[in-house]
Write a structure and sequence with these properties.
Length: 130
């Protein structure tokens, strides 16, 4: 550790890394909701698959310009990626969250509107059972 890291109590040491992981998790969630693969996402923002993967894991930081570009591709405002950051929520998805994201992705892949409506009605009926 440097002297600067040990004498600066106002800033948590891992705060930037936690933020990077949170932003990466939000990118991943939105990408999955849209049904995009990491490779498709990488192609859309002009980076390699490995770079897109590192962004989503919070390993590599994302510049402001790149984050803006990602927001445009994913159809969300830049602020979307920071939502929930104050809550310090875990970036690891629970099994239920993964299932919900997969359900959303699969639902958006259904092109037949009647099938979408039927699935939606079935979900409402199942949710009402208790």
């Amino acid at each position: 550790m440097t002297a600067e890291q040990t004498t600066s109590p106002a800033r948590p040491v891992n705060r930037a890394n936690d933020t990077d992981r949170h932003v990466g998790a939000r990118i991943r969630e939105r990408r999955i909701m849209l049904g995009l693969s990491q490779q498709q996402m990488a192609d859309l923002i002009g980076v390699t698959y490995q770079q897109a993967h590192k962004y989503e894991r919070g390993i590599n930081r994302i510049s402001a310009g790149r984050l803006y570009e990602i927001a445009q591709v994913l159809g969300v405002p830049v602020s979307y990626f920071f939502e929930g950051l104050d809550n310090q929520r875990s970036t690891d998805l629970t099994a239920r969250q993964r299932m919900c994201l997969e359900l959303a992705r699969n639902f958006s892949s259904i092109t037949n509107e009647k099938h979408q409506e039927a699935l939606s009605q079935m979900a409402r009926a199942l949710a009402a059972e208790d």
